[in-house]
Amino acid sequence: MAAPNPFDKQAGIPGVKHIIAVSSGKGGVGKSTVATNLAMALSKKNKVGLLDADVYGPSIPRMLGSINQKPHIIPETNQLEPVSRYGLKLMSIGFLVEEGAAVVWRGPMLFKAMDQFLRDVNWGELDYLIVDLPPGTGDIQLTLAQKVPVAGAVVVSTPQNVALIDAKKAVDMFKRMSVPLLGYIENMAYMLNPANGEKIQLFPKGEIDSYADAQQLPKLGEIPFNPSVGLACEAGIPVVEANPNGAEAQAFMKVAERLREILPV
Question: From CA 154, how far away is CA 265, in angstroms rounded?
Fold first, then answer.
């Protein structure tokens, strides 16, 4: 008898139309910054939630200026009410533990935490739930794919081959888990020269585009590098909200439009 498929018992989250995983094979490519600003961009026209699934290194509370907010329990349902910020519904382990406190958990505790974030949070009616995954290809990624039907995954990478090496692992992981790949986002793709608007290549351009073509992986967009993007997140006001007419915010808005076309509501 064949072993049971762990992905056969997925159940959707009531009220949530599309679950989108944002992933990278490695840290340091701006994945959480992309996930936060992408959620903000989608929220301009849609109902959006943002789940920070990086249990060991949660950053969403600080990026959205909500580090001091706490979710409360709804007595009637015993569910957690997500934190609300800029029209987004948010959940993160960072709301439940002190900033700087280490979360020292093994696999079973991670499984339980992810299940609670998906099932025991009052997400309400959402068009999109963006899940900011931790770097790598481990327990949390597997748990997400097992627990809920993920509508698709977005892979974030910077242009150079050292980042592409790990992005390939993320692509392979989603294929093995039968999660549709929506495309990839090239973050910090270039910097705009403020004097003349020309593109400056910050990183050596690797083989990411040719790899994506071979994998039939669409490019959802290129996000320019600008120190203001990082500063905005440090201030708790993502650049899509802080400077909506800037080139960086507009790049996120274009990616959001692409996702709406791929996953209409």
Answer: 18
pLDDT for 63-109, tens place per residue?
999 888 889 899 999 899 999 999 999 999 989 877 766 676 666 78
CATH numbers and ranges of domains, the chain: 16-258 (3.40.50.300)
DSSP annotation string for 78-130: TEEEPEEETTEEEEEGGGTS-TT------HHHHHHHHHHHHHSB---SEEEEE
Which conformational region is residue 244 in: left (phi greater than 0), alpha (psi within -120 to 50 degrees), or beta? alpha
Q: Residue written as tokens 């320019």?
A: 224
Please identify which residue in the block is written with the tokens 């593109």. Answer: 199
Stated pTM of the model? 0.92
What is the average pLDDT value for the chain, to the nearest integer? 90
Residue 164 φ then ψ, to 5°: -60, -35
List, for residues 17-34, the tens digit of each pLDDT value: 999 999 997 788 999 999
Sequence-separated contacts (24+) of 111-114 with Cβ below 8 Å: 111/139, 111/143, 113/55, 114/53, 114/140, 114/143, 114/144, 114/147
Return the pLDDT at 202: 87
Strand (E) or helix (H) holding 19:
strand 16-23
Separation between Cα atoms, residue 119 and residue 166, nearest integer Å: 30
